[in-house]
From TrEMBL:
Gene3D superfamilies: Peptide methionine sulphoxide reductase MsrA (3.30.1060.10). It comes from the Bacteria. GO terms for molecular function: L-methionine:thioredoxin-disulfide S-oxidoreductase activity; peptide-methionine (S)-S-oxide reductase activity. It catalyses: [thioredoxin]-disulfide + L-methionine + H2O = L-methionine (S)-S-oxide + [thioredoxin]-dithiol; L-methionyl-[protein] + [thioredoxin]-disulfide + H2O = L-methionyl-(S)-S-oxide-[protein] + [thioredoxin]-dithiol. It holds the Pfam family PMSR. This is Peptide methionine sulfoxide reductase MsrA. Residues 6-154 form the Peptide methionine sulphoxide reductase MsrA domain.
Length: 164
């Protein structure tokens, strides 16, 4: 386990993102939570400025940060500001919380690749934000769509073919 890495992203309701990422090759674990906001110990009812995001634990021998981002840009709409499906507000923004300059450069490269592909009608508005504390969401949010298979999600794979 010592070589596992973590990635932090947000792209709308965390339930749907977690449900899709959990099955990706190389993904070892997922947690949903809040990141990038104004208060410590945020909750679902009190998370000003925080995005609903996920922490992805992955094995870099089986997948890469770039491959995770490629999937991220195909399973949510990165061209809408503060919105995914019916969910609106900064909690639902598209964001990558980079942990170092290498991750920031990879994220910038992926945004350029996605924009150059022309697959989306509009340009990517995903924000690149320096890593900040990831606050694990309440237990009832973890694995929500496993516990509630008919629960709400606005996430699905929009493009089968990878960008990279």
């Amino acid at each position: 386990m010592s070589n596992y890495k973590k990635a932090y992203i947000a792209g709308g309701c965390f339930w749907g993102m977690e449900d899709l990422f959990r099955t990706r090759p190389g993904v070892v674990d997922t947690e949903v939570g809040y990141q990038g906001g104004d208060n410590d110990n945020p909750t679902y009812k009190n998370h000003p400025g925080h995005a609903e995001g996920i922490e992805i634990t992955y094995n870099p021998d089986e997948t890469s940060f770039k491959e995770l981002l490629d999937y991220f840009f195909r399973m949510h709409n990165p061209t809408t500001v503060d919105r995914q499906g019916n969910d609106r507000g900064s909690s639902y923004r598209s964001a990558i919380f980079y942990q170092n300059e290498e991750e920031k450069q990879i994220a910038e490269e992926m945004i350029n690749i996605v924009n150059a592909s022309g697959k989306w009608d509009n340009k990517v508005v995903t924000t690149l934000e320096p890593w900040s504390t990831f606050w694990k969401a309440e237990d009832y949010h973890q694995d929500y769509l496993v516990k509630n298979p008919n629960g709400y999600t606005c996430h699905f794979l929009r493009f089968e073919e990878p960008f990279i």
